[in-house]
Amino acid sequence: MELQSGSRLSSQSLQGAPRRSPPRRCPDGGGEDRISALPDDVLLQVFLRLRCARAAALTSSLSRRWRGLWRHLFELSFREIALDAVDAALQQVVCPALSRLEIEIPEEHRIMDPARVSALLQAAARLAPADLVIDVWGHCKDRDIPIEIPCFERATSIKLRVLNLYLTLPAGDIEFPALERVSVAGCRFDDMVELIRRCPHLRVLEVCGCWGLDTVEIHSPTIEELVLDNNGVLSNLDIMAPVLRQFTLQATMGRDFNVLFSATMVQYLWWWCSCEQRNVGIGEVWYLRSLDLWTEESAYILQLNIDFSTHVHVDHDLIQQIAQLPEFSVLKIYLAAYGHVFGAPVLDLLGTYTGILRLKVVIRNLKVILQSGTKECPPNCVCDESPNWRSQSIPLLSLEEIEIVGFEGTSHEVDFLKLLFRCATLMKRMTVRLSRKVFSSDGVYEEMHSIFEAYPSVECYVYRSSGLVIDI
């Protein structure tokens, strides 16, 4: 009989399990007791489909011949059970090499002694599972007490979610020869380089919600999928993975954030990096709040969330930080401008990355009320100390589509619109979505009409904030 795991189960493989009994008559004389007469391999298949070792044990109590039969299952799952019950059950397991072992101990049964978590891992290792899942809760007081992961020689997949604890690799130079998938979550884990070295066939690596990973270095000729969700501050990211196809990253950038990325086979990529230090920016008053990078139809898309403030200390140049990233063809800039002049910093970005195909600029002129007053552009503001950007021109020969969202038609926004037309000489399409503050009586429509009329080869579209198209 074929199990879902692909293993073949037969009566001869049960090593001491009860054999098939001859058919018995039902007590009421109504005929043969066909359930009790089922072969052991069929009964094990029934128990297996329960997906729970406790349910299988309870079901086996229905018949004297079934008792203890669950101990011969190749797949065991213990969910929502206290540790004592799991320990007792694991001692009864007869099968010498499991195809899957899953243990989930809920938060209400939080393990207060890290030595017991270590013992649980050792008990799991003795059963030599090919697929291991362990989900337990520890106490934050034990977050610096190392718990050694034993060697799982048969394991092809290991998923460890051990909250508030500290996992380390086994002492010595022990390898995991069959391991292809590893997932570690919710704990301190700082042996990533060593883990990759000891797993010569590792294809999938997930590290989520872990701390102790200030530097992530992954040099692997085998990894195809990578997920990093860092719970702390990430200062260095060094990826060299020639067969990597999927990469997801979520992290907080450290003050000296550096990236080395080499993965030519990537098909899916999604990065989200917040910059809580507020030390990366353009000039002295425009700083990076977050950075998103992802793939879409084989193209890289970069999104920058940039804010204005006179109360930050920018000591890292945003353009130099972006230079470390994969080459992108779409740039999206979300500006929390508060009415400030933004032409100069955006021009600096465009002048560095002249090969982009599509540009989207979202202007957020929000008013933030502070104790000192409204956060908006005052007269003689530092944001327009270099007004020469209005007369500059840079060749953006690859830029074909531009979209501006939140356009209010202020003088510097109109100058920025003219700048884009002047630089993107091969542009095919311009879309402007107006702010809800713009009315037909403001003269913005006439100003835009005169600009569009000078470039008849460009398809120009203007939308009200409601989404309606305006015929200009």
* Mean pLDDT value: 85
How many individual helices? 9
Helix content: 10-25%
Rg from Cα: 31 Å
Instruction: Report the β-strand fraction as a percent range.
Output: 25-35%
Question: How would you describe the oligomerization state of the chains in this entry?
Answer: single chain
Q: Give the uncertain stretches in residue-range form.
A: 1-21, 369-374
Report the structural category: alpha/beta
Distance between the termini: 73 Å
* Morphology call: elongated
Largest sheet: 20 strands, mixed
Concise summary:
The chain has 472 residues and is an alpha/beta fold.
Textual characterization of the structure:
This protein is α/β, with parallel strands linked by helices and 472 residues long. Helix content is 18%, strand content 33%. The protein is built from nine helices and 26 strands. The protein has helices at residues 40-49, 53-60, 83-92, 114-126, 192-198, 318-322, 343-352, 411-423, 444-453; strands at 24-25, 32-33, 75-79, 100-104, 131-137, 146-148, 157-163, 166-168, 181-185, 204-210, 215-219, 225-240, 246-262, 268-274, 280-282, 286-296, 299-308, 316-317, 330-336, 358-363, 368-370, 373-375, 401-407, 429-434, 459-463, 469-470. The chain has a 20-stranded mixed sheet that branches. Strand 9 (181-185), helix 5 (192-198) and strand 10 (204-210) form a beta-alpha-beta unit. The radius of gyration is 31 Å and the shape is elongated. The N and C termini lie far apart (73 Å). The model is unreliable at 1-21 and 369-374 (pLDDT under 50).
